[in-house]
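Researcher: We plan to redesign the surface later, but first we want a full-length starting point. Tokens attached.
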């Protein structure tokens, strides 16, 4: 087939796809066929709720996990693909946003064009890097690459002042390493040692693809590992970073400049388009002290390959296939157990959503999200907020003074459902058809400019941190709001055809989870206005910490299939939210039912339906590799532990399924509860 016919076929198939989108494989919130009736719900509720689903849903070769989250993500990607395939046809581009998402996606899908260009678009950058002679040259290069989104040395952005939530200030933070987290550079077990060797080999292969000779690539990879290890040494680990006090150090700009004078900050800030500022937050001051010493002791030439590696690593999707395949070999196959590359269209859909999320999301919302879903979700949010108010009023361990402040914070929470009230303006972002790499870099520059322009301005409380198609939700402690994108308000999380028991068990648990984040070990440090401030009495704080320690101990006892212990401190906030969230959803359901009963489904009453609705949203198969990765880097527990850890703490579950003392889902006298 000639290239011209290939292009025509792509355009034709895109037009047909837009007219007749593939059938979505949606599943209901409650799947009787997923249940393993041979299992005992009181021994292992996760196996009972999900066992047959797990057996019948092996991990696809292009995935590292396959769960009901992933199924919904796949369904959303099919919808987004239909939008983008239609938008990439020039005659369908009726407005600027449609033109941008269509041209961006088409450029990303143009593998032949990307392959033909090779590394030519980066040659000028590589020439500048290799010509660096001194710290002044290095400063200019760092600024230029930070402006297009390359993660080297450190990170600079904007954010709310943690102690003045109405103000946006500059934020300097650690960065510049290629392994998932600091401890990957220092763990001494055999797997960690192997991982470092594999990483060095990966870096060498990436450099060889970039044009280095094999001996030089190996030499430079060892040097890059040495430099990154030094950077990691002065970084905070992922668990320590969970404490907001540990990453808040507001200081005068002149004082910060004195921490790291090796970088000429005045031209750096000018080159990256930072507004003028007198002060900023320096998340980890010791990191910048350490980098100062490193920059002073390291020849400029030693940084050249480090920078080139991070450029090709960060832009692998829009570089020739060899880079993408090598990135998959280490980050996908080795670290996560993913066997095959995702189809090109999936990666380009995800990239378009990442860089033009609200332009694409607007079209997604028009197709998928009606007012009924928004209204019903908001009604559930209100009921769960009422339940939390009841819970706070009933808490015996909290004194009246602190309880009153907690209630004030709860009543001040704002709710954002589905999509933004004000859509993002992408008019300043230039998208050029046929320039995939340039589009990616310009999109990064657009976002960095957008973020830095906030410095010194009032906080925009209407802004979202996730695009509408995202299958996720979040609580923002500095905004004191909960956010539910349209992407998650679909089966199995929310199903307008399901009864309240199932919806409260599924999306209700997610709503309660996000609401509880305002009162977990992190969120509880922020007051009603979103300021990092102590609003607790000493006795209440002690009682709170004791209850939180129960969760640390419980979840630290869980062990993955490959023998890695879960980190109860790292996952504390999410575990608190899981436990509190399901309790709140249960209370809200009981309030809604007010003593009424719902029809049985498959022999299950409304209480059992509620818990099954919760358990089944977490059905997931995962590779051993990704379980290891998650247990060492992710603040969320593995799904089996998320389910069993929560229900084993709930007498309401034990009553619903008739669980007797001594069984695994009954924590005899050891049940944990904060909220």
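Model: Full-length starting sequence:
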């Amino acid at each position: 087939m000639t290239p011209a016919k290939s292009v025509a076929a792509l355009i034709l198939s895109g037009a047909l796809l837009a007219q007749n989108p593939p059938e979505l494989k949606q599943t209901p919130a409650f799947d009787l066929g997923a249940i393993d009736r041979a299992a005992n719900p009181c021994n292992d509720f996760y196996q009972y709720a999900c066992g047959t689903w797990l057996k019948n849903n092996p991990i696809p070769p292009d995935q590292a996990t396959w769960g009901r989250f992933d199924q919904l993500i796949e369904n959303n990607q099919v919808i987004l693909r239909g939008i983008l395939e239609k938008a990439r046809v020039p005659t369908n581009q009726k407005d600027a946003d449609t033109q941008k998402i269509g041209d961006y996606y088409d450029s990303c899908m143009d593998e032949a064009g990307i392959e033909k260009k090779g590394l030519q678009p980066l040659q000028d950058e590589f020439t500048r890097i290799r010509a660096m002679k001194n710290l002044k040259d290095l400063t200019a290069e760092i600024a230029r690459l930070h402006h297009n989104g390359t993660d080297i040395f450190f990170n600079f952005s904007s954010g709310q002042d943690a102690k003045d939530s109405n103000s946006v200030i500059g934020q300097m933070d650690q960065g510049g390493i290629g392994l998932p987290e600091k401890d990957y550079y220092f763990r001494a077990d055999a797997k960690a040692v192997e991982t470092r060797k594999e990483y060095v080999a990966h870096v060498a292969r990436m450099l060889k693809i970039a044009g280095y000779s094999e001996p030089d690539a190996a030499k430079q990879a060892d040097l890059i590992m040495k430099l990154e290890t030094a950077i990691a040494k002065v970084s905070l680990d992922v668990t320590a970073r969970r404490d907001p006090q540990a990453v808040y150090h507001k200081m005068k700009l002149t004082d910060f400049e004195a921490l790291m004078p090796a970088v000429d900050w005045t031209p750096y800030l000018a080159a990256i388009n930072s507004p003028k500022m007198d002060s900023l937050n320096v998340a980890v001051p010791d990191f910048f002290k350490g980098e100062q010493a490193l920059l002073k002791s390291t020849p400029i030439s030693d940084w050249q390959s480090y920078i080139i590696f991070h450029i090709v690593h960060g832009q692998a999707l829009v570089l020739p296939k060899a880079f993408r395949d090598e990135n998959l070999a280490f980050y996908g196959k080795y670290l996560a157990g993913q066997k095959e590359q995702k189809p090109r269209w999936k990666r380009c859909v995800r990239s378009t959503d990442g860089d033009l999320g609200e332009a694409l999301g607007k079209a997604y919302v028009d197709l998928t999200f009606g007012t009924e879903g928004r209204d019903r979700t908001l009604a559930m949010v209100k009921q769960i907020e009422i339940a939390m108010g009841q819970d706070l009023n009933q808490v015996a361990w909290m004194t009246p003074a602190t309880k009153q402040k907690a209630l004030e914070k709860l009543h001040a929470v704002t709710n954002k459902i589905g999509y933004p009230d004000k859509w993002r303006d992408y008019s300043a972002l230039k998208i050029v058809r046929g320039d995939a790499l340039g589009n990616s870099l310009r999109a990064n520059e657009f976002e960095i400019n957008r973020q830095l322009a906030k410095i010194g301005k009032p906080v925009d409380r209407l802004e979202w941190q996730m695009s509408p198609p995202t299958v996720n939700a979040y609580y923002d402690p500095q905004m004191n709001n909960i956010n539910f994108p349209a992407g998650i308000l679909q089966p199995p999380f929310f199903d307008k055809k399901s009864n309240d028991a199932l919806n409260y068990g599924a999306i209700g648990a997610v709503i309660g989870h996000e609401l509880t984040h305002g009162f977990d070990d992190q969120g509880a440090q922020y007051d009603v206005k979103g300021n990092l401030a102590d609003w607790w009495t000493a006795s209440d704080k002690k009682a709170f910490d004791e209850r939180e320690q129960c969760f640390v101990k419980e979840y630290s006892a869980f062990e993955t299939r490959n023998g890695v212990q879960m980190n109860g401190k790292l996952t504390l906030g999410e575990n608190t939210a899981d436990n509190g969230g399901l309790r709140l959803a249960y209370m809200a359901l009981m309030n809604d039912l007010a003593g009424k009963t719902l029809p049985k489904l498959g022999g299950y009453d409304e209480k059992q339906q509620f818990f099954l609705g919760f358990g089944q949203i977490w059905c997931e198969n995962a590779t051993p590799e990704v379980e290891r990765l998650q247990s060492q880097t992710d603040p969320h527990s593995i799904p089996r532990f998320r389910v069993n850890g929560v229900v084993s703490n709930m007498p309401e579950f034990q009553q619903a399924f008739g669980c007797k003392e001594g069984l695994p889902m009954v924590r005899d006298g050891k049940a944990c509860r904060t909220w």
